[in-house]
Amino acid sequence: MTDFSPRIAIIGTGLIGGSLGLAWSDRKPDCRIVGHDRPEVLDRAFDRGAIDERAADPITAVSGADIVVFATPVGATVKLMESVAEHLKDGAIVTDVASVKSPVMEQAADVLPKDIHFLGGHPMAGAETSGIDSADSLLFENAVYALCLPEGTSQDALSGNLYPVVNLIESTGAEPVVLDADRHDRIAAWVSHLPQLLAVALMNVVDDLDDDMARQLAAGGFRDMTRIASSPFSMWRDVLVGNQGRILDALAGFARSIQGMRNRLIEDDIDALDDAFEQAGQARERIPRDRKGFLQPLFDIVVRAEDRPGELHEITGILLSADLNVQDVELLKFREGTGGTFRLGFDDSDDADEAVDVLNGADYAARRLE
Ligand SMILES: NC(=O)c1ccc[n+]([C@@H]2O[C@H](COP(=O)([O-])OP(=O)(O)OC[C@H]3O[C@@H](n4cnc5c(N)ncnc54)[C@H](O)[C@@H]3O)[C@@H](O)[C@H]2O)c1
Ligand SMILES: O=C(O)C(=O)C[C@]1(C(=O)O)C=C[C@@H](O)C=C1
Fold first, then answer.
1. Where is the Prephenate/arogenate dehydrogenase domain (predicted)?
2. pLDDT averaged over consecutive 10-residue blocks of the chain (370 residues)?
3. Of all atoms in ligand 2, which is nearest to the CA of residue 227?
4. In the chain, N or C terminus with fewer CB closer than 10 Å?
5. How far is the CA of 73 from the centre of ligand 1 (A)?
6. Mind listing the domains of the chain with CATH numbers?
7. CA of 17 to the centre of ligand 1 (A)
C-alpha cells in the first residue's frame, strides 16, 4: 500500500459513500474503487464516476480491498461488518462514516480479525437529501471529519498503519479531528442529533397551524432553522437508536432552556432574556468560521446557475484555471428545478472581486454578496 494507489471498497454508495467516491475519483485517480449497494444505485454510482467497479454482494466488494469504507446506515454497517469480517484482506484498513460512533466501534472491536486496522470516521458534512443523485465531490471541502481510534490504538497509528485512510480523508478537503467515541457521541447529541429533532418539531408545529399564510410569511430565519427537517428518517432512526441516552440528555437540557424562556415571558420579565441573547451571540462568534456550513468566509460572491449536471464543476473549473481558491460552496435553493444560485466563499476580497470578473466574462451572472 506504500504506493498510495489502493483498491477501495465502498459499501453503500448513497449520499456520503457516493460523495467520497466522487472526491477520490477526482483527486486520487490511481485508486481503484469498487462499490456495493442495490443494483440500481450501483449503476448510477458507476455512471456518475463515483466507482470503477460494481460488486453484486459485499463479500465480493471487500475481497482484495486494501481499504473498506462502510457508508450505510448505522444498523446496516454493524451487520455488514460482521458478515464480511472473515473475507477481509490481511492488513486491510476498515473505516465507516456513521453519525454515531459507539455502536460501530464496539462492533469493530468484537468482529474484526486482529490483523485488520480499524478507524471510526464521521464527516461533519451532509445534506437533507439522500442517495447517489445528491452525492457531490465537494461535500467534504473544509468540513471537520471526526476520527475515533479503537481502544488501545495509539495516535501514532494515524501516521503509521492507518495513514492511507487518513490521507484519503484529507484528500477530500476535510480536516480530521481525533476524539474518542464516547465524547463524539455526547457532543454529536447536542450539535447534530438535537438540532435534527428540533427542526422536525419546529416544522411540524408550524404545519399544525394549518395556515397557508404561515407558509408564505416563513422567511430566512425559518428556512435556516428547518432545512434539515426534510432529512430521511431511514438514516436518522438508527442514529436515534444508537445514541438514545445522550440524545435524551440533550433534549432535557433544551427543554430546561426553553422552559426558562417561557417562564420569563409568563412573568412578564422580558428583559431577563437579554443575558440569554448576549450569551448566544457571543457563543456563536466563537464557532470557527473557516468551517463548512458555519463558514461565512469574509468574502462571498453569488452566481446564478442552470439546473443541469456538471454546472458546479464547470464554475469551479473556471475559477481554478484563474488560480482562485474557493473556500466554501453553498447552493442557495430558491427555485428547485429551475436552477439556483451558488454562494462561493473566498479568503480574500481581491479574489472575490476577480472571481466575479472571471465568471461574468464566462457568461455567468455573478456578483459580490455584501
Ligand atoms: N446524510 C448526512 O448528512 C450524513 C452525514 C454524515 C454521515 N452520515 C452517515 O452516513 C451513512 C450513510 O448515510 P447517507 O446520508 O449517505 O445515506 P444514503 O441513504 O444516501 O446512502 C446509504 C446507502 O446505503 C445503501 N444501503 C443500505 N443498506 C444497505 C445494505 N445492507 N447493503 C448495501 N447497501 C446498503 C442504500 O441503498 C444507500 O444507497 C449513515 O451511517 C449516516 O449516519 C450521514
Ligand atoms: O445537512 C447538513 O448540512 C449536515 O451537515 C448534516 C449533519 C449535521 O450537520 O448534523 C447531519 C448528520 C451527520 O451525521 C452530519 C452532518
1. 6-295
2. 77 98 95 98 98 98 98 98 98 98 98 98 95 94 95 97 97 96 98 98 97 93 94 97 98 98 97 96 85 63 83 92 88 59 87 95 86
3. 1
4. C
5. 5
6. 7-179 (3.40.50.720), 183-285 (1.10.3660.10), 299-369 (3.30.70.260)
7. 7
**Shortest-distance Cα residue to atom 36 of ligand 1:** 12
What's the distance, CA 265 to chain centroid?
Answer: 37
Nearest CA to ligand 1 atom 40: 73
Pocket of ligand 2 (CB under 6 A): 99, 124-128, 192, 228, 293
Q: Which residue has the cell 462502510?
A: 70
Is the Cβ–Cβ distance between 327 and 291 less than 8 Å? Answer: no
Integer CA distances (angstroms), 197 to 71, 229, 264, in order: 22, 8, 24
Contact between 143 and 291 under an 8 Å Cβ cutoff? The reply is: yes
Geometric angle at alpha carbon 69, from 119 and 147, rounded to 5°: 30
d(CA 345, CA 295): 8
Q: Write the single-letter amino acid at 58.
A: P
- Nearest bound ligand to the CA of residue 19: 1
Q: Which amino acid is at 329?
A: V
Helix axes 194-209, 244-266, angle to 10 degrees: 50
The verdict on the CB of residue 41 being under 6 Å from ligand 1 is: yes
How high is the pLDDT of residue 330?
Answer: 80
**CB count, 10 Å around CB of 233?**
9
Q: How far apart are CA 132 and CA 14, in angstroms?
A: 4
